[in-house]
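ok here's Dipeptidase:
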Amino acid sequence: MKIIDTHCDALLKLQVTNRKFMFQEGPLNYIDSDKLDTNFQRLQQGGVKVQFFAIFVYPEIPTDEKWQHALEQIDLFYTQVIGNNPAMKHIKKWEEIDELKEGEIGAVLTLEGADAFGNDLAKLRHLYRAGVLSIGLTWNNANLCADGAGEPRGGGLTLLGKEVVKLNNENRIFTDVSHLSAASFWDVIELAHFPIASHSNARALCDHPRNLDDGQIKAMFAKNGLIDVVFCLEFIKKDISNVTIADLIKHIDHLCSLGGVRNVGIGSDFDGISAYIKDLENASKFQNLINELQKHYTESEVEGFAFRNFLEHRPGIVVAT
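and the structure:
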């Protein structure tokens, strides 16, 4: 069964390794490096049809260097992910997913944290033109747009942040709520036409600030938003010593119990996590999740979780049902 995965950090891993080994071993090979959870071969083996690639700049990077770090990751996307792999197709418009041929994998650029463009909306428009189709206003920190889930102040969107959400709406871009503070989340829910939680779980099952509580989940579903479950162990259960696929499916069960059977998807966070669910250690293992889901849900429902729910919720796309 084909998979659409809305979050991985392969670009950051490629960048960090390139910088670290610039004068030593050389860069990772995106095609088959065993250090990449989402390398090309593993995406093929796991049945991934569309993979989202996040641009993420560490908050500790000096402000005047952040844009350069973002550009480096975009360049790696074009040269290593797309450039070296003819079967990887850059998705710059949502309709292009439907044009993928057998054996081709769609690649989508996203931004995790507005730190990269600061308060420069010209840079944001450049990201749109580069093909970024989903914008998360924060990581866990605060920035000029909003407070993140790890910011003690717990503030909401700034005027700049609200302007970014409006620009996302105009450009048919997802606004990602996964890393937002509670106040920022509710500001986005009020403004965003296309909300997504690209990699979050249910806080009722695992009380972590990166997860969504039941009120937030219901609000997402009321806005026809997507919530894509994440494989990070700390977001699945308190005791991370033995996390199984069944533990992850409990979060899907909970989301469905709140009315989200057609609003749930997958946002693995591969290449951004270092500890793994048993039998779900990289993208090649995706079908293990599918096989387990098929024991609990109908084939149509599992197809929804794997890819169809996303296709039906793409910004500006009307799908006949």
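+1. The mean pLDDT is 96.
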